[in-house]
Description:
Blueprint: H1 3-7, H2 25-34, E1 47-53, E2 56-59, E3 64-67, H3 70-73, H4 82-87, H5 91-99, H6 111-119, E4 128-132, H7 135-155, H8 164-169, E5 182-186, H9 195-200, E6 218-219, H10 232-252, E7 257-262, E8 265-266, E9 272-273, H11 276-289, E10 292-296, E11 322-325, E12 332-336, H12 357-372, H13 375-396, E13 402-405, E14 413-416, H14 420-432, E15 435-436, E16 438-440, E17 444-447, H15 455-469
Parallel strand pairs: 3-15, 5-6, 5-7, 7-10, 10-11
Antiparallel strand pairs: 1-2, 2-3, 4-12, 8-9, 11-12, 13-14, 14-17, 16-17
Amino acid sequence: xxxxxxxxxxxxxxxxxxxxxxxxxxxxxxxxxxxxxxxxxxxxxxxxxxxxxxxxxxxxxxxxxxxxxxxxxxxxxxxxxxxxxxxxxxxxxxxxxxxxxxxxxxxxxxxxxxxxxxxxxxxxxxxxxxxxxxxxxxxxxxxxxxxxxxxxxxxxxxxxxxxxxxxxxxxxxxxxxxxxxxxxxxxxxxxxxxxxxxxxxxxxxxxxxxxxxxxxxxxxxxxxxxxxxxxxxxxxxxxxxxxxxxxxxxxxxxxxxxxxxxxxxxxxxxxxxxxxxxxxxxxxxxxxxxxxxxxxxxxxxxxxxxxxxxxxxxxxxxxxxxxxxxxxxxxxxxxxxxxxxxxxxxxxxxxxxxxxxxxxxxxxxxxxxxxxxxxxxxxxxxxxxxxxxxxxxxxxxxxxxxxxxxxxxxxxxxxxxxxxxxxxxxxxxxxxxxxxxxxxxxxxxxxxxxxxxxxxxxxxxxxxxxxxxxxx
Length: 472
């Protein structure tokens, strides 16, 4: 029995579109009503989650879509997963919801077990976790941890007390208490829409217009030629070009760089992959300069690439310092292994809730389901099958499948269309034909199905895709 049949014996056999256009009339009417109290301008349609199941999302018009976007890459096991539903009835979950512990001051008695379950699927080499509330929050917290760690090293270690000058100047947002430090990130990166994470984000102007940002550097992220095997030499040259830029920025930036933040695959920025060589060389550079190395696995983490954590493909040695997570884990935070990332004083890395134990319980259950059902094996098998089907379409329609990428990376697959207009038209056609698919960057299509996606879903999607592409 396949995992989809196990989880979802009543899952739809195929998409079903009942309206002439999407969104349909009910969606349009209810979205218009909702717009009086909520910004509905980005909405594709109004979802009916009670009727969504497995790999299919339903809307209020009765349309049922095969979902390859999964709440912007955030659904790990499919809609209304029965194993996760069972978690909702446990005393620990109910207590976490009703009592919402302020975990820093009043941790519940189950917290050690809750954290232990998350750490069972931690990235290799990581032994601790610090919890947050969202992907952007995870990156904000990691940046804060990196800066405190960096300054502690400069100060002489955790036992060195803060100076009087530090304690007074920080209240005026001045150095040395508020030091001038930078975080190096990459062009086309997306790390969130808050202040530190927004300063590291460099994918689209709309993500960060009108709010103050730190004057922090953005290096070049490699832009590879595909397919990769015949372009190995030119791609290595691209890696080395970008690595030199990183080194030059570290050497010349106007203030010290405390941390380097990178996605192993830039997702929002266009599904740009970093090679094993590039990620390891960055580790070498960060060690050489005493810079904290942060891997952002918010979108790439929790199995979609065929490993629990995408950067594990790079076998980075020694392990990177911090790994942030959210989305498919339904929780958020960062992993680390060096206990010196725990601040030297309480209340430095702190807020009222210090995460959400209810969501942490769900994260542990998701990790357990992935392990017990060998879902990483399935993702790799299905991803290979899907990629081969897309390669066949690329042969027939090369103009609409440029830079097909993600081979050997599970179902984390993307390709480019000639321009943004043709990409947007394809996404619209797909949705009207029963497949919910997302885009990224200006002209890319990205696939983000759940881990329960199977070959039968691939066949449905590829048939719909070919019909839509043939009419562009």
